[in-house]
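ligand=zinc ion
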Amino acid sequence: MPLVTSKEMFEKAYNGGYAIGAFNVNNMEIVQGITEACAEEKAPVILQVSKGARAYANHNYLVKLVEAAIMCNPDLPICLHLDHGPDFETCKSCIDGGFTSVMIDASSKPFEENIEITKKVVEYAHDHGVVVEAELGSLAGVEDDVKVAAEDSSYTRPEEVEEFVQKTGCDSLAIAIGTSHGAYKFKPEQCTRNEKGILVPPPLRFDILEEVSKRLPGFPIVLHGSSSVPQEYVKMVNDNGGKMPDAVGVPEEQLRKAASLAVCKINIDSDLRLAMTGTIRQFFNEHPDKFDPREYLKPARANIKEIVRHKLTDVLGCAGKA
Ligand code: G3H
Ligand code: 13P
Ligand code: ZN
């Protein structure tokens, strides 16, 4: 089937109490790992491309890789989405270039300016059959070249969401309830330690999610920064020459709970990066004589596939929904 928008995916996810996985893609092995897992688990999927991914791999390569995934998995619903579109021009370029969904992230701008930019993108996107994700509130962490310090992040203010959605016409809304980008989501001093000495982060602000969804009944909510930073992969990195002390993510039970509520799209990138990097580091440690990229990319791709399968079946609840 051709690329789809996320409209129908979100309607079903909202009513079914699950979320669609949105995974970032940067190269062939990542596209293959994700889509093979989704096809086998019959899970609709959003493949998302950041500004950084377009700069790294080139828009055309990424679109053609996704087209290849469609040819190899003809029954799998795939939405191709721009992640964190920084301005109208980038969104327009993706809309003109075959994407079915874009995010305009003007969340760092004042409220009125965010409305103005988002509305302009929505008008252009809807004229071209493309859907738009917008954002209110800002997450801590690093995304593309934007670094938001924990003290500069801000939770979404529920009292703003109705006016924002009504004035912009956006199709989904990313909110800030305590998730954050990257592998170091919480400072050790924000966390407690469990009996194994592992950092336990503060809980997400479900009260904000609840208030937002009360004000926007039936409207799809998006969570960014939702990697769980699996400790077995942090250990694999650290045991094989890496240095990622105190990397910590969002506990998966909390994501499962969010997926059962109004959250219809959950963004996961860092977990796939960790799986890939840990696997490649281990491979080199165990096989210092090897130098064929296919030999180390193959197990990396296999582990991306397995981590995506785990997310679909055990966290997002979208397996079997395609
Ligand atoms: O939120 C950002 C995503 O993880 C993409 O990261 O900008 O390094 O491609 P990137
Ligand atoms: P993570 O860094 O938690 O994987 O978040 C990814 C994301 O939000 C992409 O937009
Ligand atoms: Zn994000």
